[in-house]
What we know:
By secondary structure, the protein is an alpha/beta fold. The chain has one domain (13-80). Helix content is 31%, strand content 15%. It contains four helices and three strands. A three-stranded parallel beta sheet has the order 1-2-3. It starts with 13 loop residues before the first helix and ends with a helix.
Amino acid sequence: ENIILHGPVDPSELAGYAKNWDVALIPYQYNELCRHLNPIKIFEYLYLGLPIVATGCEDTQNYPYTFYAKDKDDFIPLIQK
């Protein structure tokens, strides 16, 4: 009940949706391919002033307001933080 899936959103409309968010998620798989990704959405979320919880992309730890979940057990507590 706390999650709404809107489907694709035009980038120009993202801020309108995000104003109701408490946290932004970057949920990538834990594997070698994703390990050093630098997803563009991190910059969009930072621009919008949202705290971010990321998985799978270790390099996201280097950004402000970004919390990296080292494993699935870390993920939910970081969202609740």
